[in-house]
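subagent[fold] <- orchestrator: predict structure for attached chain, return tokens only, no commentary.
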Amino acid sequence: MSILSNLAFIHPEAKIGKDVIVDAFAYIDKNVEIGDGTHIHPHASILPGARIGKNNEIFENAIISATPQDFRWKGEDSFVIIGDNNKIREQVIINRSIDSNGETKIGNNSFIMAQTHIGHDSEIGNYCVLGNAVKVAGNVKIGNYTILSSNALVHEKCHIGEWSLIKGGCRVNGNVPPFAVMAHNPISYFGVNAYVLKRAKKPDHIIDDIAKCYRHIYQTGTSVFNALQRIKDDVEESPERDAIIMFINSHDMNLAAVPLKDTYDY
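subagent[fold] -> orchestrator:
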């Protein structure tokens, strides 16, 4: 049975699932859907276009489906789609899309810590952790199992691959391939996300091969084009190796922390 405080504002057109808890002084607007088992804490605001899945917990002063902070938005109806089993902590702001019927997406089982901001049309994968005061601009994509430490800042249209770790305070101004650790400002390659990969039971030889891939990309001084050729010749095929190659090929070699040389420079 749902527990809806009489001191909360719940628009009569909002759709509330089973076993939902809405605490006092929460605000739930029209054109909102909240899935079963979700808990909305005091002073949280759920605004039009929010589609919230099951068993989420949204803490005090969070704002879900805030209007976009973008001059291109002219009042179009759009959405924030949130999956299941997420924790969204205090003062988090998630903006909805700037496009008519567009979507900002949060996956499943992620932990978004206090004061984080997620801009319009961005997509956060499953099992992600966004630390305190992380700032994610518009049209960003963050892959599954990625960690952004506190105060990391991600510029618009960047893509961070799965299983990556961004150290605290980093400014991400390009694409980050999967399985990497990035640190410092200007951002630079720091190593392979070996600790998390080991926790996920990735075998040692796979982690070693990932490290070999990134030595070619970040530590040989050659162009990204040539690094990819060397990876294909030097590293045994695996889903992880192929994911790195596919990521780089699909992002026009625009990698963070790599000074892009002439494509054919040997």
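orchestrator: received. Logging for downstream: The first strand starts at residue 3 and ends at 4. Confidence is low (pLDDT under 50) at residues 260-266.
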